[in-house]
Description:
The complex is a heterodimer of chains A (404) and B (128). Chain A is of the alpha/beta class and 404 residues long. Chain A has two domains: 4-24 and 293-402, Aspartate Aminotransferase, domain 1 (Alpha-Beta Complex), CATH 3.90.1150; 35-289, 3-Layer(aba) Sandwich (Aspartate Aminotransferase, domain 2), CATH 3.40.640. Chain A has helices at 33-46, 56-76, 89-104, 123-132, 149-155, 178-187, 207-210, 235-240, 275-291, 293-312, 341-350, 363-369, 385-402, and strands at residues 14-15, 18-19, 21-22, 83-86, 110-114, 135-139, 160-166, 191-195, 214-218, 229-233, 251-254, 259-261, 317-320, 331-336, 353-354, 356-358, 374-378. The longest helix of chain A is centred in the first third of the chain and has 21 residues, at 56-76. Chain A starts with 13 loop residues before the first strand and ends with a helix. The model of chain B has no long low-confidence stretch (mean pLDDT 90). Chain B is an alpha+beta fold and 128 residues long. Chain B contains six helices and three strands, in the order αβββααααα. In chain B, α1 (6-13) packs across α2 (61-74). Chain B has a single domain (6-117), classed as Sufe protein. Chain: A (Alpha-Beta Complex). Chain B has a three-stranded antiparallel beta sheet, covered by helices on one side. Chain B has helices at residues 6-13, 61-74, 79-84, 87-93, 102-105, 107-118; strands at residues 26-32, 37-46, 49-58. Chain A binds chain B through residues 339-343, 346-347, 350, 358-359, 372-373, 401-402, and chain B through 2-4, 9, 12, 34-37, 58-63, 98, 100-101, 104.
Amino acid sequence: MRTVRTDFPILDQRINGRSLVYLDSAATSQKPRQVIEAVARFYRETNANVHRGLYGLSVGATELYEGARKKVAAFIGVDPEEVIFTRGTTESLNALSYSLGEAWVGPGDEILVTVMEHHANLVPWQELAKRKGAVLQAVGITPEGELDLEDFRRKLSPRTRIVAVTHVSNVLGTVNPISEIAEMAHEVGAKVVVDAAQAVPHMSVRVKEQGCDFLAFSGHKMLAPTGIGVLWGRKELLEEIPPFLTGGEMIREVWIDRATWNDPPYKFEAGTPPVAQAVGLGAAVEYLEGLGMEEVRRHEEELVAKVLEGLLARDYVDVYGPRDPARRGGVVAFNLKGIHPHDVATLLDQEGIAIRAGHHCAQPLHRLLGIAASCRVSVYVYNTPDDIEAFLAALDRVWEALGG
Amino acid sequence: MSPYEDLIIDHWRNPRNKGTLADPDVDVTEANVPCGDVLRLQLKVRDGTVQDVRFNGRGCAISMASASLLTEMVKGKKLDELREMREEELLEALGGVIKPRLSCALLSYRTLKKALEALGVHARRASS
């Protein structure tokens, strides 16, 4: 994937005299010129509100917006009317916790999450449990950093109404067996909500084959602009659950004292949507399909293997999560013994290497690991083996400066 | 400017006034929750002057070096003088701190202000 890097103008720049090595794509990805151009072209040529104008521009904008929905649907193997555009994963999960929670959870019911959830797939369910008098439980992990499926089985009960689980951990990198989880959850009649923010950008996800009920992801982590994300839900469930936001676009008929809803997905898209951002997401999907998601996955596995090999060979480094690159997504979390992650990140930044340091919005997991914070590198299509070598060499210099 | 001047490395590796006091007049703890940095500061005060000081905690090199340096700046100072101390003085003493790490460097300053408030010594205006 050597030619890909030149598609990303931001990677041309130099930081402190060195070329930028961007290893924080799990936080947000960089954008190829194809996406930047698609957004700019929309504003230059087609900008108008969607679904309501009777003039040509609006028809064009609507076609582009709905075209993006079709591209996204095909990309994850679902029907377009099941694809709801949101602001991102966090909004998708929060909205769902209200809509699904309202229809589906009552006092004494149980909600099952995992200790490796990003706060965005934990706190909305905590709040739902509080509102409804439901009980929140969390599945643990094995010493290798994989989901403890025995614990999962133990904590499932006939009262479990919702299972909320991440597809790929944004800290451990662990790829969770969604099909298996969905099968077990469905046996007790629970609905399965998947946080796929770290999965959809990096691997071929065929949603219907996984058997989950809802799935959320963000555009900005998959080469698209910020402010656009997706909530996918099974059509029959989207018809059943109430909307979270009400107002324009989502409505069919309104009287002064009541209203009826539009069909999904519009029922869940109140207000003027982020049209240009959706068009950008459509362009990002096209770009990724051009590379081929199998190839994206293969490329990342190769880079992650190189990161893991390099980190595990350094005895001053602690690595978290599975050792096998095949069982991981594109992130690797680690610590330098006795050194705070922020010190590592600051010194790497001096060499033009951008990594993340902190708790990565996963405080319960860090508490479980017995650490306050960690460093995290994450890779994407534009990273090269040279990036990884530069990172590992710089890490040795950090250790020289601060360690020992 | 390097984010890790020799001074910072020195104070981080060889912290001054680290430990606990047997009989402090004030004992406060502050944290930088997002990064997990925690700092405990104790002062012994006689006749309005800081007679002794200790810190303890865990965190990044910048926050811990800053705490160590702050204890040196505080010891022997009058509480009235400390009330007037500005955060810029600490940052200058540290040799300058890069923007993303200001909150690390100023954890010790915030902890000192908390200690002064606990002693009933209030700043004339909130520090900016």
